[in-house]
Amino acid sequence: MPHAPLSHAIRRALLVAAVAGLAPVAAQAQTQDSAAEPTTTLGRIEVTGSNISRGDMETASPVQVVTRQDIDRSGKATLAEYLQTLTVDGAGSVPRTYGTGFAAGGTGVSLRGLGAGSTLVLLNGRRMAPYGLADDGQKVFTDLSVIPMDAVERVEVLKDGASAIYGSDAIAGVVNIILRKEFKGVSVRSSYGASGKGDGQQAKASVTFGFGDLNEDRYNVYFNLEGGQTDEIRVADRRDRKWIGTGDARPWGYSQTKRFMSGYILGTDATSSPAGNVKNPTTGQYMSLPGCAQLSPLTPQDPNGGCLWQSGQFNSLAPEEKYVNLFGRGTFALSDTFEAYVEAGYSRKKSTFHNTPSGVSGAWGYPGGPINGDAGDSAVVLGPNHPDNPFPGQSVNLRYAAFDVGPRTIRTDSEFSRILAGVKGTLGAWDVDVAYLHSQNDLTNTRDNFLRYSAVRDALTNGTGPGGYWRIGQNAGLNSKALYDYISPTIHADGKTTLDLFDVKGSRSLAELKGGSLGIAFGAEWRRQKAELDPQTYTDTGDIIGLGYSAYSGTQEVAAAYAELVAPVLESLEISGAVRYDKYKGGDDATTPKIGIKWKPFEQLALRATYAEGFRAPNPAESGKGGLAAFTAAADPVRCPGGTPAPGASVRDCDIQVAVITSPNSNLKPEESKSYTLGLVFEPTANTTITLDGWEIKRTNEINVESTSAAVAAGRTVRSDNNLPGVPNSGTLLAAQANYINSASTTVRGIDLDARQSFDLGASGRLNLDLQWSHISTFEREEEDGTTFEYAGTHGNCDVTNCIGTPKDKINLGATWEYGKLSLSGVVNYISSFKNITAKGNPCASRYADGTAAPGGGCRIPSFTTFDLSGRWRAVDGIEVFGSIQNLTDKIAPLDPLTYGAINYNPMHSSGAIGRYFTVGVKYDFH
């Protein structure tokens, strides 16, 4: 069935919101006291990480609670954007701006920098089907963009790693997104945002309406409908923000060979040019075809005669997005002790991202192996009779950027659905909950202006296909539409994931101890998760130039059972424990325990500690059917030994994009983990709370793609033909063949601080302050051969998404002043500096044109601090006006020469690339 245009759905969502906003008469017919908060047993609360209700929010496990007010004051348009500002988020998160990655269109959070695939994301305590595209072609994760932001009540982040309750695969921790349980009345919210330059416009509207009182009517039903559209921002739109709007970093001391610059000639080697660089068959030297002046305005030009250009004029800084989210929940009292509940959710999202025009050469891979379009028999050449060939009668190697085809365009259309039905209540002394869940994600990833290798070779060599010869550079205007349809067909990939889950759980009090009730809980769960991804058209035969291959198919079916105990043995001492058993059908099994202790030597102080074990079986992308051919950043140890270019090489060889070809490995062992926390909760006054926790997570048998350096050292490489003088097989590194392997271990440890203080200012209102600080002291990866890499405070680990680095410190400092109907908030976001090295002890990863370490000031990416301001005013009862300014001071992101997730800046600093951003809106509440 064809999809209805998403723009129609968004317009309907906006119309519904507008109509609801114009219907106060009908809305006011609702009773004023009917806005129901989530119902809980008086004096007892449930906390993420436990199925046993208790009277104290602070458990042995460190849990960060993000309130609705925290989200609102940030000014962020989506929950994903907000969660990626948390200090516990790190390398491996998937930002919406990373449209060139395997998981284009998705957004994910990565606790502790251990990857989105190691962070378990829950909705109301239960799982969701993962995104249809795996991050880096390997890491299956939950897409946060399917969550209706205005339905979120709070988010609880379990930070101690692994979970005997929710799943032993939660190695890095759990993010539990909790939506409203009940709602009665009508709430309408609309907002509009734009950058300080007037672009990136964002329109958003939502309506929440509900009816029925669970106590009086014995039911409550509510729905939330949310729609929005965000306009694209191009990198070229930020030309006045120094290095942000350009790929040309020469004004700041870098060489023309730096990444995101192309077209230059290096004697026997050259890069793709809009005019075309060809190799003189007699001298072996490259030369440029004519026409550069009309194709690239960049100055100064290449002194070696190339035609320089930079990709900033094409790339998206932020993609265009359109989405609709729908969520509904119904709760029905079956008796005085039992209720039935149903949740249903649907999300549709479209995103469009533009990337640089494709080159016609290079190297890429597919399951059959690597293809070398640079050199040898498979090289892309101008044929002997091509009209643009300056050497008639001879084939010449070609480096050409297909400006005339246009920028590559990546469009993602994702549909997500989730339905949950269950019954909960009291059966004798037991509180029980039984539910079934089905969730699904169907996704199509469509790409335009990519080049088909076989057609390109024919059109440049023989000219026998539709449209004849492909005329290039200054003669590209002579080409026909038939030719472009031939060499650049639309391609696509289809992905689908499904999750079916049945669970039952029960808890009760067994006895009264000196400190309170001895609580026990049991649970069992069965789930089946399927993941299928068809490869992009033609990539299964390696026939799309420069495009990696990703495909997988597999099913995981697991049965689990767990038990939990909370024993307040003394008024000052609580001991908790849980154990989980997971059994994968036809595969692995594991028993994973968790224990915790909390001791309150006096009322104002609590000391706490936990120990937990985790277990993650290989997912279908890692051990099923399929394969992966991707790209990563690497330093060539042959052409750039010790970080210094060898004679005949260039600084390009010290930071080069390399194709990596990987196949699933059915012999992979499961990942295992052990995590520890030790901390305190200090509440010296009723208005002061300080939590300080030290933590460590050690993951063994870690499933990774073998490091590029190991593959290069083993000689499993493909190189170009521009060998160094006297050194055979030393041409430019193009591709490497790596394997999925179990590395030895990764150990991450650090400290978290959360401090909150409020002041009653009397007639001047109330002031609330909060501080979150996460410090990573160690991020150590040990390989099987005993080699260790320390990434804390460096730009590594570059084997995970974006190569964004591992700064040691992230701090969020917030202040909110409440005065009558007015509330003003400010948030300072700080990310510490880090060394521009791939691992501790390695040489500087980037160099200036003069050979000195870059960036200056000690080969270090500077720290980055922004300030966000927001305000809310309750104009009259039921009407609230709000607004925010993100990056109030318009701070520019530091120049980052290494990351490949963005051009000249780090994705962690994306607010400094976009610049100052304004949002205004209004909210109507009628009860």
Describe this structure in words.
It is a single chain. It contains eleven helices and 49 strands. The strands form ten sheets. It has a 22-stranded antiparallel β-barrel. The chain has a four-stranded mixed β-sheet with strand order 1-3-4-2. A four-stranded antiparallel β-sheet has the order 13-12-21-20. With 927 residues, the protein is mainly β. The radius of gyration is 29 Å and the shape is globular.
Q: Give average pLDDT, whole number.
A: 87
What percentage of the residues does DSSP assign to strands (E)?
A: 35-45%
Q: Give the overall shape, derived from the CA principal axes.
A: globular
Instruction: Count helical runs.
Output: 11
**Which bin fits the share of residues in helices?**
under 10%
* Sheet of most strands: 22 strands, antiparallel, barrel
Provide a concise account of the structure shown.
By secondary structure, this protein is mainly beta. It is 8% helix and 45% strand.
What does the secondary structure layout of this molecule look like, with pairings?
Elements: H1 6-21, H2 24-27, E1 63-67, H3 68-74, H4 79-83, E2 119-123, E3 152-158, E4 173-179, E5 185-195, E6 202-211, E7 219-230, E8 233-234, E9 261-262, E10 265-266, E11 269-270, E12 277-279, E13 286-288, H5 292-295, E14 309-310, E15 316-318, E16 320-333, E17 338-355, E18 363-366, E19 369-372, E20 381-382, E21 396-399, E22 408-427, E23 430-448, H6 453-461, H7 481-487, E24 491-513, E25 516-533, E26 549-570, E27 573-584, E28 589-602, E29 605-616, H8 620-623, E30 625-634, E31 656-662, E32 671-682, E33 688-700, E34 703-705, H9 708-713, E35 717-719, E36 733-737, E37 740-742, E38 745-760, E39 766-782, E40 788-790, E41 809-819, E42 822-831, E43 834-835, E44 846-847, E45 853-854, H10 856-859, E46 860-861, E47 864-876, E48 879-886, H11 911-914, E49 917-926
Parallel strand pairs: 2-4, 31-36
Antiparallel strand pairs: 1-3, 3-4, 5-6, 5-49, 6-7, 7-16, 8-15, 9-14, 10-11, 12-13, 12-21, 16-17, 17-22, 18-19, 20-21, 22-23, 23-24, 24-25, 25-26, 26-27, 26-30, 27-28, 28-29, 29-32, 30-31, 32-33, 33-38, 34-37, 35-36, 38-39, 39-40, 39-41, 41-42, 42-47, 43-46, 44-45, 47-48, 48-49
